[in-house]
Specification:
It is built from seven helices and 18 strands. By secondary structure, the protein is of the alpha+beta class. The longest helix has 23 residues. Bound molecules: ligand Q0N. The site of the ligand N#Cc1c(N)ncnc1-c1cnn(CCN2CCOCC2)c1 has 18 residues, from strand 1, strand 2 and strand 3. Belongs to the SAICAR synthetase family.
Length: about 300
């Protein structure tokens, strides 16, 4: 948290501030695992994921406008000058939007909460799926599985498209969100797959400008808002290794940590080698996707 700025809200990893009539979205180096925010930070994680978001916004600009005014600290308002060094590379100055209260999730592969519903009902958010799918199955076509936003710390509520249309009270908006979410996900999935990363699923947030234009908000297509899987280790029928968090998960569930995920105790601090290996994975994801060296 940056004292001295007008703090509006915080998620597990990022903080939101009001700056004049705009917003400042700041990504920390925090990392979460097993629903805990770990006491260990990953150096540069906030900068890497912010720069990745900015790259994706550029890749998607022909499909959908976004909320970012600038991520260049030298273009930030003068009131932020005292925080330049702290903000450099990890902050986006954004237009303030009327946010749509829906987590717009696209899934290209079946896992997580989508798999759980499928194993019970053969559906995902009420949509029937083919029989015989397993954990990690690639879906013939990406599916839109919206969730109504929950309070910080609670899990979002998966809803059917029809429920979402009803609860937003705007069926046309619901249809537009579905189309945009699937188009953006499909573009990103194809780009990532060409670089050896499977984008299993992702969550978008949208908002509207005063004139009503629908705009892509928040961060996009980072390992925090998406499941990134290394393509060369994809084996449907088991849990897929996470591109970025597998070192953390493996250590936390190993005897070396002395921690039990089933306990109510928070995880211990990570060994330096796990911190550095995890940082390296974030750098690798950034460099493989963007083709740009992280500096
Ligand atoms: N982005 C954006 C945005 C915007 N451009 N205009 C108005 N509101 C928001 C907004 C408000 N909350 N959230 C959820 C993500 N936050 C991340 C940081 O932590 C808190 C939650 C997005």
């Amino acid at each position: 948290m940056i004292t001295g700025l007008n703090h509006l809200a915080s998620g597990k990893i990022r903080d939101l501030y009001a700056v004049g009539g705009d917003l400042l979205l700041v990504a920390s180096d925090r990392i979460s695992a097993y629903d805990y925010v770990l006491e260990s930070e990953i150096p540069d994680k906030g900068r890497i994921l912010t720069q990745l978001s900015m790259w994706w916004f550029g890749q998607l600009a022909d499909l959908v406008p976004n909320h970012v005014l600038t991520a260049d600290v030298d273009e930030f308002p003068a009131e932020l000058a005292p925080y330049k060094d702290e903000l450099r590379g990890r902050a986006m100055l954004c237009r303030r939007l009327a946010m749509v209260p829906v987590e717009c999730v696209a899934r290209g592969y079946l896992t997580g909460s989508g798999l759980a519903e499928y194993e019970k009902n053969g559906t995902a958010n009420g949509v029937p799926l083919p029989a015989g799918l397993v954990d990690g199955s690639r879906l013939d076509r990406p599916i839109f599985t919206p969730a109504m936003k929950a309070e910080v710390g609670a899990h979002d509520e998966n809803v059917t498209f029809e429920e979402m249309a009803e609860r937003t009270g705007d069926p046309e908006l619901a249809a537009r969100l579905k189309d945009l979410t699937l188009a953006v996900y499909s573009r990103a999935r194809d780009i990532a797959e060409g670089r050896g990363i499977l984008l299993a699923d992702t969550k978008f947030e949208f908002g509207r400008l005063p004139g009503g234009t629908l705009v892509l908000a928040d961060e996009v297509l980072t390992p925090d808002s998406s499941r990134f899987w290394p393509a060369d280790q994809w084996h449907p029928g088991r849990a897929q290794p996470s591109f970025d968090k597998q070192y953390v998960r493996d250590w936390l569930t190993s005897p070396a940590s002395g921690w039990d995920p089933r306990s109510d105790t928070p995880p211990p601090a990570l060994p330096e080698e796990v911190v550095q290996a995890t940082r390296a994975r974030y750098v690798e994801a950034y460099e493989r996707l963007t083709g740009v060296k992280f500096v």
